Amino acid sequence: MFLMLIIMMMITLMIIIIMLMIVTLMMNDDDYYLYDDYYDDSLKLGPKEPEKTGAERAWGRKSRQPPISAKSWTTPEELYSGADDHLILRWNLVNNETASLVKLPDDVFPTDMHWFPKAATGGGKKTGSDLFSLTSTDGKFHIIGKTGRVEKSVEAHKGAVLSGRWSYDGSALLTAGEDGQVKIWSRSGMLRSTLTQNSTAVYGVAWGPDSDQVLFTNGRQLVIKSLQANAKPTMWKAHEGVILQVDWNPVNSLILSGAEDCRYKVWDTYSRLMYSSSAHDYPITSVAWTPDGELFAIGSFNTLRLCDKAGPNTGSVFKLSWSSDGTQVAGACGNGQVLIGHILERYILNQSTSDATVTESKKIVVRNVLNDSYDKLDFRDRVIKASLAFGHLVVATSSQCYIYR
């Protein structure tokens, strides 16, 4: 009987302890929470981090971050960004520090940001600009100074303003909206003209190299429109899906487009296709040329790809003709040049101990596979054919035939 009493008392004590622990956890529920890491599908229990500002949590990959929808460089060492948490952040790439520039109103969600073009000074140097345009989902664009002061807010479109770009001379601002309109504004925010009224949203716009033409999207089509009155626009079907982003390089005058068909393409100003990528796994959501036009980058889901503008600067190659010996090809080019190509790096494989490669039009390099030694063979004339078999190398040039053991 006494033993049963002791057991009951112990059970009662354990119940009281468990209840106290539950009450303690409920009173301190801010200290622990269950969170889902974006980069790990497993659920974890851990100490809850204190609330951080946008500047404190900007560096590095963190879960539950607001999407960053706008960004723009001022110098190669300074970048500004805007996100759905209404913060405009300044990123210093020299010391890896981030600071909050301004907190936007709660109803302002950024969609695009573009700094005013740099002004040229003596000696050819350029100074940083002091203001930028910020487009938002409330149908407005905002002119904001480098200190964070909002200089002006302008009602621009019905629905979200999806893109805003300054002209290269800084005299005009180009905007595109969810309402299908493309508009040009003065630097002070006065409406100059409405270029078009589409039936679908315009997701991307770009200025032409001389700021006298405008490129914009229209569903699956690309449109180039001159600012001259009564000028007929150039329009063509560019993708099989809605075009999401465009860029027009002022140096090479080539147009870059990315779309929901998961492809990116390069065009000239006459709507001729220069390059079309293979289909990616996800839509191409962003494209951008480097300022010199030598490289471009494309962005997709979990993807950033760097591409070069391969090939010579010849324009369209209209005619091709091979030489009689099949070692050279000539092309008639749209920019007035004649392109001449030589077949090089022809690999000649021997299954036993050696291989050979035609490295130049008059040179062959032979490699001994066993000891990795090399022999270089120079010829007076172009190498037309070569064969390596049965322990012999046979080389035919335009005037002679050589046999090596």
From TrEMBL:
This is IFT80 second beta-propeller domain-containing protein. Residues 352-405 form the IFT80 second beta-propeller domain. The keyword Hydrolase does not apply. GO terms for cellular component: cilium; intraciliary transport particle B. It comes from the Eukaryota. The chain crosses the membrane at residues 6-27. Residues 49-59 have a biased composition (Basic and acidic residues). Residues 49-70 are annotated as: Disordered. WD repeats lie at residues 154-186, 236-268. Keywords: Membrane, Transmembrane, Transmembrane helix, WD repeat. GO terms for biological process: cilium assembly.
